[in-house]
Write a structure and sequence with these properties.
This protein has 287 residues and is mainly alpha-helical. The protein has eleven helices and four strands.
């Protein structure tokens, strides 16, 4: 029974990390930048749910996705698009600045005290195992999102354009692909995924502060690197790896306090053994 619960918890946690990691890996794969403000988009979504929750949880979820997508578009247009041809260091510093701006803005307008909600999904009995309904919803939604995104990238015109821009931005532009539009679509998808992941985190933790998305964002970035930054299947694999590590550590009291240390130690080991991650590809830089 404990093994079954560990597997279920690992899938739930890993699915949440994978959805956040997909945002990181898509933006890096297409725009060639690390959006360190991605975790703060989760925080924006979390606050949106808390503010709209008294009206209706469903309205809160919809508002969260809409607001996160809007913030993602504004950030991409105002902060990242002007730096399209800048050095990676300049873009990285800008991303860190955007992250701190979002955190500070939340503190100014909403205060420094955490805000919470109270909502109980209840449990469902499957045989001798009692599983939280929220856990089941998280797993099912994660699988649905990953399958939908994979099919979107593989079979739609926009998805194939994303692959083309990822492979060679200059050649894609010569073929008539609007690179700026594709990058904006990527930010929209990444922000929507962050909002969905934020929904599950809010209902699980039921408490939102200005640094709400910081640690999930860092762990999701680690998951993207472990799986292979730039690879969509890699983000899924990396998320599940961290999810199962976290679930196993949670079942062993002696390991529980060191969960974060173990996860980042695994990241270091993977980078030492396979720097491109499990499913990442080594790219040749053109000169």
């Amino acid at each position: 029974m404990e093994i079954i619960m560990t597997i279920i918890n690992g899938l739930s946690i890993g699915g949440t990390y994978a959805m956040i990691a997909l945002g990181y890996t898509m933006v890096y794969g297409i725009a060639k930048m690390l959006n360190f403000a991605h975790g703060d988009i989760i925080m924006v979504g979390g606050y949106t749910i808390v503010l709209f929750f008294p009206i209706s949880p469903i309205i809160g979820v919809i508002a969260s996705v809409i607001f996160c997508v809007t913030v993602g578009i504004v950030v991409e247009k105002s902060a990242y698009k002007p730096l399209r041809g800048a050095s990676p260091l300049a873009v990285l510093i800008t991303a860190i600045g955007v992250s701190k701006l979002l955190q500070s803005s939340a503190q100014i307008f909403l205060g420094s005290e955490p805000r919470g909600i109270t909502f109980n999904f209840g449990n469902i009995q499957i045989g001798s195992v009692s599983i939280s309904v929220l856990t089941l919803i998280t797993i099912l939604c994660s699988v649905a999102v990953m399958v939908a995104l994979t099919l979107f990238v593989k079979y739609t015109k926009t998805g194939r354009a994303m692959i083309a821009v990822s492979e060679d931005r200059g050649a894609a532009q010569l073929m008539g692909i609007n690179v700026n539009f594709i990058i904006m679509i990527t930010f929209i998808i990444g922000s929507a995924l962050a909002a969905i992941a934020g929904v599950f985190l809010v209902f699980k933790v039921q408490d939102v502060g200005t640094t709400f998305g910081a640690m999930p964002g860092i762990k999701a970035f680690a998951a993207a690197v472990i799986g292979g930054i730039g690879s969509i299947p890699g983000a899924m694999v990396g998320g599940l790896v961290l999810g199962f590590i976290e679930a196993i550590c949670g079942m062993v009291p002696a390991l529980s306090p060191y969960t974060d240390a173990i996860e980042f130690a695994i990241l270091i080991i993977v980078l030492l053994v396979k720097p491109t991650g499990f499913l990442g590809k080594k790219r040749r830089e053109k000169v």
